[in-house]
Design a protein that fits this description.
The protein has about 950 residues and is α+β, with helices and mostly antiparallel strands. The protein is built from 35 helices and 25 strands.
């Protein structure tokens, strides 16, 4: 192709783009002065005119523009009928190339004359498309075949068209920045040239046919088996492809389909299932499912015939899992999994809008609708877009012009472009055939299978089930063997264990997967929800304020928090709250049962606690404050410090211990990809339901209540709103190595341990994550004025990093507590003995731990589900266990027993009861981790 032809071709493309753009822009202006009754007719005429312009130019230019026209012709779900009606002609009925050209190409490519190759060769092509045309023929051995012959000179045309398309996309992005299609065209430029080599297409055809079992005669009843046909490859060269002939009817031949009795609904659903299999199961799929690439077999039972595998995309295992996770997250409304899947596939946003992201995802996987509802769809999408723009405008404080030019996507991975195209093409195919397809129902089994298959591959089948860091001790070697046993017994899904002895890390193990539908491996920096382990952190914060001189343990809470001193609570003191003797053990129970999401409203919970009346006199009865403990402590912390709860957490522990990004109470946006997902061990719950009630537990937190909670809490606490909420009694998210480091500091009376041992050069060191992730800064377009408020988008005001010196004491030092008797304060002994109930299980905020002989040896706090933080003060030992498969202490007890035995230190009695007294007496198996 000469330069003159290239220039002329380019000018035609740009001229038409400008004409259509200006036509619609002027129509928008004319519409304002047009009567409502005539507006529809005005738009219909414009669509008809512009569709004809587009069709005429595509037919003239051919090449890549035919591909564009074919794609547009399938979007009956969103495009006006005029475009669909006219552009349908491009699917297989372009003007054919001369037979002489076809013969020359075949002779040159196959090295033989037509007479030697074929007994017969139809001069008229069966179909002519953008790159090639197809002729029916009979080989010299009698086989019926079709011969696909590439157009002469099409390679140069396609490559030039890609350059032109790139230029147009750049222009659109300049004129309308919210429509930046550069990631799409970049991916197209990478993939489209592959269609020009028919050897690649031949191999793609073989792979997809093999993956879908098209040549298999297996009668196995597989729920994910698909019933489609794919022609066998006979021979191929770069420009000629010979395939098995299959007699079929085109999808747009409605009369023939009706005469054959084809159920169009089942037909389209089976095509959709075939693509779901290719995407989610195989990770290798045809990227061009327009109607011209399908036939329907004339022979009963009229299976779909899949054609043309030139544009075929391969997915890495991690991307395949991320796409499956995205689909299921959208289907279930799981914001955490959705944002996590985005991070896993490399899709980055410039701001935190989880609700809007979920809406867009739901639109993407929405059910298909008949073509006659396209206008309604477009109107609904426009309304939704305007709503989202309004939310964006308010969140970003932008004016109307700025918000229209703002692109919320910072990075769009090219690997998912073809996937997006396929989903849209399938929806368009369904609409053009006037059927409704519920994609969630059809695709779900395939998406679930890929995740469940990888999750179910426990230690016995997964050599990488244990994270690949060297063992730090013989004890860790033995622990890993135990974890493998528990994993093979299906008692562990994902787990982290970290332990310190004498100030040094001796165990730092991560194993298993992040969730039931998340087969990614647990890493050392994965974040686990640890329920009531949170109380030990919250109590530590309150002790830190006492150490800083901001309050005293015998201060009345009402003097610190004036609103609290009402309804008979004027005598409640700080030590009553820490010792679980304030009398508010059932506070908030009824409210949180009626509306669990009230826990997400920090201010409302503090108000409710402040207005609650105690059930018992302070200091007389110790009953576990399973939820109220956190808000009681949280209210005291904020009123005593005049700072936000998270600010104190970061200042007291996160920064001094260098555990940034691995310990939160209420997560910030941006960490979703590291979250473990909770699930319940149903066998444990069943056993629990058979146990008797316990007098030391509140009436609203008896065994039957705990059993019910354990089966429902995972669903609630897996939600984004719950994970982001400040629930100091139950909502910490941390890694075991961060939690163990916290307890290692506590066991040494506040001395900060040496830097955490790090044996994995490929994984982030403890403390290397930003504690509050920032979204990427926005680069203004050429037409956009630079503005300070757009230079950086800061999120979650509660996570503003506090200064290193805030006037409340020194900045980060080698000790987080100055009180040499801090152990006594935690456990409520010696000079603190009068502040606690003498026979109670709790000290001041921490659960006391005794040896089997009754000696007080340490303190800590466990959480519902088995996660635990604990330290033995006599032996300078600290350990943390985090789990995502909720049990009631059995797994943690086995871990504790092995580690304590290897180190020759006492096993806490609560865990001892689990490991040594498991018998027919069910009640004897109920240990401390349960009530926490």
């Amino acid at each position: 192709m000469g330069w003159a032809s290239i220039y002329k071709r380019r000018m035609k493309v740009f001229a038409l783009a400008v004409v259509i753009y200006l036509d619609y822009k002027s129509l928008q202006l004319r519409e304002k002065w047009t009567k409502n009754s005539k507006k529809a007719d005005l738009w219909e005429k414009a669509h008809e005119c512009n569709a004809k312009r587009l069709l005429n130019l595509i037919v003239e230019l051919e090449g890549l523009w035919v591909k564009l026209g074919q794609y547009l012709s399938t979007r009956a779900d969103v495009l006006p009928p005029a475009y669909i009606r006219l552009l349908k002609q491009l699917q297989d009925s372009l003007p054919p190339r001369p037979l002489k050209e076809v013969r020359q190409t075949i002779n040159k490519e196959l090295g033989k004359s037509m007479d030697n190759l074929f007994l017969s060769f139809d001069n008229a092509p069966l179909a002519t498309a953008s790159i090639a045309q197809v002729h029916r023929a009979t080989l010299s051995d009698g086989h019926e075949v079709v011969v696909k012959v590439q157009h002469e000179g099409i390679k140069e045309i396609i490559l030039e068209d890609l350059k032109n398309a790139k230029s147009i996309v750049d222009w659109i992005a300049w004129a309308e920045p919210q429509y930046n299609f550069n990631p799409m065209i970049d991916e197209w430029c990478k993939e489209a040239p592959k269609e020009l080599d028919f050897n690649i297409e031949a191999e793609n055809t073989r792979i997809v046919s093999r993956n879908l079992g098209c040549k298999s005669n297996s009668e196995v009843n597989n729920i994910n088996r698909v019933e489609v046909l794919i022609p066998e490859v006979i021979m191929s060269t770069e420009r000629v492809l010979v395939l098995e002939y299959m007699d079929g009817v085109r999808l747009n031949d409605s009369e023939s389909l009706q005469a054959m009795g084809v159920d169009k609904q089942k037909l389209v659903e089976e095509i959709t299932r075939a693509y779901a299999h290719q995407i989610y199961v195989d990770g290798f799929f045809n990227g061009d499912p327009h109607p011209g690439n399908f036939l329907v077999s004339k022979a009963p039972p009229h299976h779909p015939i899949l054609l043309d595998f030139g544009l075929t995309k391969g997915l890495s295992p991690s991307l395949k899992q991320a796409l499956a996770k995205m689909f299921l997250a959208s289907a279930e409304g799981d914001h955490v999994a959705l944002l996590s899947s985005f991070a896993e596939m490399g899709l980055k946003l410039r701001l935190d809008l989880p609700e809007q992201v979920m809406e867009i995802s739901n639109v993407f996987f929405r059910n298909s609708t008949p073509a006659n509802e396209a206008q309604q769809n477009m109107k609904a999408f426009a309304e939704q877009r305007n709503k989202n723009l309004k939310v964006l405008q308010e969140k970003m404080n932008l004016n109307k012009k700025e918000v229209k030019r703002f692109n919320p996507v910072d990075a769009f991975p090219g690997d998912i472009i073809i996937f997006s195209r396929v989903i849209n093409l399938l929806r368009g195919l369904s609409s053009s055939m006037d059927v409704r397809v519920v994609y969630v129902d059809i695709m779900r089994p395939f998406a679930e299978s890929v995740l469940q298959c990888n999750v179910s591959r426990g230690p016995a089948f997964n050599a990488n089930w244990i994270h690949d860091t060297p063992a730090l001790s013989n004890t860790e070697d033995k622990l890993r063997k135990l974890l493998i046993e528990l994993g093979n017994a299906d008692k562990v899904l994902g787990i982290q264990v970290c332990a310190y002895k004498d100030g040094e890390v001796i165990i730092d193990t991560a194993a298993g997967v992040l969730g039931r539908y998340d087969p990614r491996p647990v890493q050392p920096d994965s974040l686990f929800p640890v329920f009531s382990v949170s109380k030990g952190i919250t109590a530590g914060m309150l002790h830190w304020l006492v150490d800083q001189g901001k309050l005293k343990l015998d201060d009345k809470v009402g003097n610190i928090w004036p609103e609290f001193g009402t309804n008979g609570k004027d005598q409640i003191k700080v030590h009553h709250v820490l010792n679980h003797t304030s009398g508010l053990h059932n506070a908030m129970a009824d409210l949180t049962r009626e509306n669990p999401l009230v826990m997400a409203d920090w201010d409302e919970c503090l108000n409710c606690i402040a207005n609650t009346a105690p059930e018992t006199e302070p200091g007389h009865v110790q009953q576990y404050h399973y939820l109220s403990f956190g808000w009681l402590c949280g209210g005291i912390i904020e009123h005593a410090s005049s700072k936000k709860f998270q600010e104190i957490l970061e200042e007291a522990f996160v920064r001094p211990l260098n555990i940034d990004g691995e310990l939160y109470i209420g997560i910030p946006p941006g960490v979703e990809s590291r979250l473990a997902t909770l699930t319940s061990d149903m066998d444990e719950i069943k056993k629990l339901s058979e146990m008797a009630n316990r007098p030391e537990l509140p009436s609203s937190f008896q065994v039957q209540d705990v059993s019910q909670m354990a089966s429902t809490l995972p669903a609630l606490f897996n939600t984004l709103v719950a994970r982001r909420s400040i629930i100091p009694a139950a909502n910490a998210h941390c890694s075991a190595r961060a939690l163990a480091r916290y307890y290692a500091a506590l066991v040494d009376r506040g001395t900060v341990p040496p830097p955490h041992a790090h044996s994995s050069p490929t994984h982030p060191r403890l403390g290397s994550h930003p504690h509050t992730p920032k979204f990427p800064s926005l680069k203004p377009s050429k037409k956009q004025k630079k503005s300070d408020r757009l230079s950086e988008i800061v999120i979650a005001k509660d996570y503003t990093r506090v200064p290193s010196d805030d006037g409340m004491g020194n900045a980060s030092t080698d000790k987080i507590f100055g009180n040499a008797r801090i152990h006594d304060a935690f456990m409520g002994v010696e000079e603190y003995e009068d502040l606690v109930l003498p026979v109670g299980q709790f000290g001041l905020g921490f659960k006391r731990s005794y040896s089997e002989g009754g000696e007080l040896i340490g303190f800590g706090h466990s959480g519902m589900g088995g996660s635990t933080g604990y330290c033995d003060v006599k032996n300078r030992f600290a350990i943390a266990v985090t789990l995502n498969k909720m049990n009631f202490g059995g797994v943690t007890a086995k871990v504790m027993k092995l580690v304590c035995s290897e180190l020759d230190i006492p096993l806490p009695a609560d865990f001892y009861r689990f490991t040594e007294r498991i018998s027919d007496d069910i009640d004897s198996n109920l240990a401390a981790p349960l009530i926490n």
